[in-house]
Amino acid sequence: MATTEPRVPMLGVAEARAIGKAMGIPSTMAGLNVFRVFARHPALAAVIAAQLSMLLFKNNRLDLRLRELIIMRIGWRTGAAYEWTQHWPIALHAGLSEAETLAVRDPENAGCLGAAERAVLAATDDVLDNGAVSAASWRACAEHLDSHEERLELVAAICNWNSFSILLKSLKIPLEEGVEAWPPDGKPSPSAD
């Protein structure tokens, strides 16, 4: 993947981490290229980091595997190389196999996905295609997501990472130096720029 310059110049890692520390953003997050750009607007960076932290790390109700399938599907469908690449190792750490994670490329023909996985991927596609989860997808998800909290996080996750895909692509956030795009095989989404 060709290195691109972001539309808003990145701050140095040390400066971004110092701003992140002042705003309560974890150092590991503040040093990423995306936050090296967002650090130019510290209040915005703090809000985005807080939402990401909640959905990723704090009091999660939605199964982590399902969340990562949602994120990977959005990354694939929207051609967001940064999103796909950053979440590939997170998906594997959450317990997804490579085959399950790659299944988001073509979930209708993936025998390794169960009913819950298919339901959340269908809900994700509904939002990407029509701006809302359809009644049929909502019923299918409700069969596997017992609590209101899980269902709220489902919609929040789809919306958050769809928005993040738009931010990443619109701002042309490059991958960190030395990081190979589109793991494991380097095959980019047909939607990739």
Explain what the structure shows.
- The protein has 193 residues and is an all-alpha fold.
- The chain folds into two domains: 13-57, no CATH class; 64-171, AhpD-like (Up-down Bundle), CATH 1.20.1290.10.
- The chain is 61% helix and 0% strand.
- The protein is built from ten helices and no strands.
- Helix 5 packs parallel to helix 8 (115-130) and helix 5 (64-78) packs parallel to helix 10.
- The radius of gyration is 17 Å and the shape is globular.
- The mean pLDDT is 96.
Q: Keywords, please?
A:
mainly alpha; 193 residues
Quick structural gist:
The chain is mostly helical.
Q: What order do the SSEs take from the amino end to the carboxyl end, as H and E?
A: HHHHHHHHHH
End-to-end CA span: 10 Å
Supply Rg: 17 Å
The class by helix and strand makeup works out as: mainly alpha
CATH architecture of the largest domain: Up-down Bundle
Task: Tell me, briefly, the overall form.
Answer: globular
Helix proportion of residues, in percent? 55-70%
CATH class of the largest domain: Mainly Alpha
- Indicate the proportion of strand residues: under 5%
The CATH topology of the largest domain turns out to be: AhpD-like
Question: Number of helical runs?
Answer: 10
